[in-house]
């Protein structure tokens, strides 16, 4: 799910609004951790929705659609791994 960090809301592929986005960078480590947790939740929910969509619609897709879906899944998985690493680093800094 492409997330526009400058938009007021994130939007999934179905056009549904997710949680409101913060416009300013978090200032404290706890605020950064909270932001990362929200992003992890959004990416996880999007992943679940996309896999459900694959199960329901994939028989209608062209080869290009399948390739695009796989690329999106790969990009999202990479970003989720980055967020998980960032969360671990923040937790270590907070000694949690």
Order of helices and strands: EEHH
Specify the helix fraction band: 55-70%
Structural class label: mainly alpha
In spatial order, strands of the major sheet run 1-2
Brief summary of the model shown:
This protein is mostly helical. 62% of the residues lie in helices and 7% in strands.
Keywords:
2 strands; 96 residues; 7% strand; single chain; 62% helix; disordered N terminus; mainly alpha; two-stranded antiparallel sheet; 2 helices
Blueprint (SSEs and pairs):
Blueprint: E1 9-11, E2 17-20, H1 29-57, H2 63-93
Antiparallel strand pairs: 1-2
What does this structure look like?
The chain has 96 residues and is mainly α. It has a domain at 28-93. It is built from 2 helices and 2 strands, in the order ββαα. The protein has a two-stranded antiparallel sheet. Helix 1 runs antiparallel to helix 2. The longest helix is centred in the last third of the chain and has 31 residues, at 63-93. The protein starts with 8 loop residues before the first strand and ends with a helix.
């Amino acid at each position: 799910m492409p997330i526009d960090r400058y938009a007021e809301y994130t939007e999934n592929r179905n056009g549904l609004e997710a949680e409101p986005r913060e416009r300013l960078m978090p200032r404290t480590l706890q605020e950064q951790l909270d932001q990362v947790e929200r992003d992890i939740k959004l990416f996880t929910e999007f992943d679940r929705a996309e896999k459900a969509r694959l199960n329901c619609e994939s028989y209608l897709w062209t080869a290009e659609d399948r390739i695009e879906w796989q690329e999106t899944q790969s990009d999202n998985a990479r970003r989720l791994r980055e967020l998980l690493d960032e969360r671990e680093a923040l937790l270590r800094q907070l000694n949690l």
